[in-house]
Design a protein that fits this description.
Keywords: ATP-binding, Coiled coil, Kinase, Membrane, Nucleotide-binding, Phosphoprotein, Transferase, Transmembrane, Transmembrane helix, Two-component regulatory system. This protein folds into 2 domains: 218 residues, no CATH class; 197 residues, Histidine kinase-like ATPase, C-terminal domain (Heat Shock Protein 90, 2-Layer Sandwich). Helices cover 63% and strands 11% of the residues. The protein has 11 helices and 7 strands. β3, α10 and β4 form a beta-alpha-beta unit. The longest helix has 92 residues. The relative contact order is 0.06.
């Protein structure tokens, strides 16, 4: 950045300011509506600090004006060094007034640097015109430094032009044109100019560094918030997955057992003389269901507890025996030599078969055919049962849970209604693991 735009950007990078009783105060020191008492006290503290800073700056400006005034008087009183005109006019009340006119504007140097430079240069020119020694007066030199350090490119260029013109007019006032004296006079002006430029560039660099630090802090805060949101999203996703798993387990375990209990209780009710074996089976199923639910609740309550081994196809005979005892005629057809499934796929196959048989007992005619096929690249499970009456929906909670179980291990499941029958077909990979 160069020129007026660079200076404007540097000023914009500083803290925005308001004015209270004519003193510059950062906007962060001004309370707004809705602030708590603690925040208001914080604002008050910052306002007091800003007021102290303003006072110290005012004292510094006054000291600078006094120094310019005192040094200028000393130089005029002793026919200052590098004076352009020899045997110049001595210090008198008129000269003191002129020097005071050049020094007083330094009290406003922060707000009006161009005004300070203009007045100091004009007074220096008037002093030279009236024969005072003006070779090295501090007023114009200090004002030029302040202008180079704070003004834009246009004002700085105008100041250089005015300075050269002032030097020329001052030299011309002597009636001759002493080149060496003029060069010696221009050297302090050039030094003041380059010192002001360096100060301005340094301030601009510091402002850019502060802005970069602010931007980096904002980016870090935004990244932290994104990380918090992502962690919260993952937590909610994990909770949702756990709730879905619990719902599937409860639906498959308790729903299956309750369906069998209902079938057996209905059969026992229809028998006039009662059926002790059916009642015993009902009692056994009820106890098993309570045990399964206790295991599930226990695993939820105790995170460090070693999880119980989930049932798999090794319990297939027991599952089919329960249904046969309840009166469901189950036919089992296994194709090909048995091949071991992964733990997750094995549990998914058992739960799918358990839910399919429960649906057969609840909605079918009492018959079910189970087909297990180990000959393909994937394990295939098919359950077909005759149905009667109004066809049931193929997308109930049970079917949804079975599809979720198949998808979790990389498999698929289709549920279709055929001519007078309901067919469920699942394909599970042998190495299926939870995704």
């Amino acid at each position: 950045m160069t020129g007026d735009h660079a200076t404007s950007a540097a000023h914009q990078a500083e803290t925005p300011r308001e004015r209270v009783f004519g003193l510059p105060v950062p906007w962060t020191a001004i309370p707004s509506q809705g602030d708590s008492p603690g925040e208001v006290r914080g604002y008050a503290g910052r306002a007091m600090s800003s007021t102290a800073i303003a006072r110290s700056r005012a004292l510094l400006d006054a000291a600078l004006a006094a120094a310019v005034f005192a040094v200028s008087l000393l130089l005029l009183a002793h026919d200052g060094p590098l004076a352009i005109r020899p045997n110049s006019r001595g210090l008198d009340p008129f000269g003191i007034v002129l020097v005071g006119c050049a020094a007083v504007p330094f009290l406003l140097r922060r707000r009006f640097p161009l005004l300070v430079y203009t007045v100091a240069a004009a007074v220096s020119l008037v002093l030279a015109w009236f024969g005072y020694p003006t070779g090295l007066l501090p007023g114009p030199i200090a004002a030029l430094y302040l202008l180079a350090a704070n003004a834009g490119w246009t004002l700085r260029s105008a100041a250089v032009t005015a300075g050269l013109l002032l030097a020329y007019l001052g030299a011309s006032a002597a009636g001759t044109f002493p080149v060496i004296g003029l060069v010696h006079t221009a050297l302090p002006w050039a030094a003041a100019w380059f010192a002001g430029e360096r100060t301005r560039l340094r301030r601009q660099q510091l402002a850019e560094l502060r802005q970069r630090a602010v931007d980096a802090e904002r980016e870090a805060e935004a990244e932290r918030r994104r990380a918090v949101r992502e962690a919260e999203r993952e937590r909610r996703l994990a909770v949702a997955e756990e709730r879905a798993r619990i719902a599937r387990d409860l639906h498959d375990s308790a729903g299956h057992a309750i369906s069998l209990i209902a079938v057996r209780a209905g059969a026992a009710r229809l028998r006039q003389d009662g059926d002790a074996r059916a009642l015993e089976a009902i009692e056994e199923l009820a106890r098993q269901t309570v045990s399964d639910i206790d295991q599930l609740v226990g695993s939820l309550r105790e995170d460090d507890q070693e999880p119980a081994t989930p049932p798999g196809l090794a319990s297939l005979d027991t599952l089919i025996a329960h249904h046969r005892t309840a009166g469901l005629r189950v036919a089992l057809d296994v194709t090909g030599p048995a091949r071991p499934l992964g733990a997750a796929a094995d549990q998914a196959a058992y739960r799918i078969l358990q839910q399919a048989l429960a649906n057969s007992a609840r909605h079918g005619t009492g018959d079910a055919r189970v087909e297990l096929d180990h000959t393909g690249p994937d394990f295939a499970l098919t359950v077909t049962n005759p149905v009667h009456g109004t066809p049931r929906r193929a997308n109930g909670h049970g079917v949804i849970g079975m599809r979720e179980r198949a998808a979790l291990v990389g498999g698929t499941l289709d549920a279709t209604r055929l001519e007078g029958a309901y067919r469920l077909h699942a394909r599970l990979p042998y190495g299926g693991s939870p995704s």
